[in-house]
């Protein structure tokens, strides 16, 4: 089971690595499609949206019965398209500011989560696992994956 400290450290590492790697981008590189089909700007808009929605869902997550599938009824692809589309008019610096702001709010939210909530079991496209592992897997590992993907020049038009 992931600890609160591991989740917070992972979120902080996601922010620091995002800032480090994007500072090395060539001019306009944030608009270059990556192998997965998204640009770095789109990936960071997606991550900003994910980080922003977790605290909003927190009350429902805590109140849901043990074993509830918290992804039930969600159209993840539609949510992603809406989130990325909603930030399309932002420039890259604004997108990165939204990313960092939402991650900082998420870090504060995780710091305040009671141990009982982190220990409860829910499902999120998985078997029933502790909420702490859902956060570690779907936010921390997911965020680091996209930071790496945004930084990868493999199959991008350089």
Explain the overall architecture:
The chain is mainly alpha-helical and 158 residues long. It has a single domain (4-151), classed as Up-down Bundle (Four Helix Bundle (Hemerythrin (Met), subunit A)). The chain contains 6 helices and 2 strands; from the N terminus they run αααααββα. The protein has helices at 4-22, 40-63, 76-86, 92-112, 115-119, 131-151, and strands at 121-122, 129-130. The mean pLDDT is 89.
Spell out the CATH superfamily.
dinb family like domain
Q: How many domains in all?
A: 1
Helix segment count? 6
> What string, H for helix and E for strand, traces the elements in order?
HHHHHEEH
Helix content: 55-70%
Taking pLDDT < 50 over at least 5 consecutive residues as the criterion, the unreliable ranges are none
Q: Averaging pLDDT over every residue, what do you get?
A: 89
Assembly type of the chains comes to: single chain
Q: How would you sum up the major sheet?
A: 2 strands, antiparallel
Task: Name the shape in a single word.
Answer: globular
Class computed from helices, strands and strand pairing = mainly alpha
- Separation of the first and last Cα atoms: 41 Å
Strand share of the residues?
under 5%
CATH topology: Four Helix Bundle (Hemerythrin (Met), subunit A)
Number of strands: 2
Q: Using only CA atoms, what is the Rg?
A: 16 Å
CATH level-1 class:
Mainly Alpha
**Corresponding CATH architecture:** Up-down Bundle
Side-by-side strand order of the widest sheet = 1-2
């Amino acid at each position: 089971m992931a600890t609160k400290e591991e989740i917070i450290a992972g979120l902080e590492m996601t922010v620091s690595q995002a800032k480090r790697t994007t500072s090395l981008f060539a001019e306009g590189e944030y608009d270059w499609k990556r192998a997965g089909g998204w640009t770095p700007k789109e990936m960071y808009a997606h991550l900003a949206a994910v980080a922003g929605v977790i605290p909003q869902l927190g009350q429902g997550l805590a109140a849901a019965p043990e074993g509830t599938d918290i992804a039930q009824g969600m159209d993840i692809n539609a949510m992603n398209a809406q989130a990325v589309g909603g930030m399309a008019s932002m420039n890259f610096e604004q997108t990165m500011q939204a990313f960092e702001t939402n991650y900082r709010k998420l870090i504060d939210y995780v710091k305040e989560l009671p141990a009982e909530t982190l220990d409860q079991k829910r499902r999120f496209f998985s078997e029933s696992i502790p909420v702490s592992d859902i956060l570690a897997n779907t936010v921390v590992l997911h965020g680091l994956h996209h930071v790496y993907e945004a930084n990868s020049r493999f199959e991008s038009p350089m």
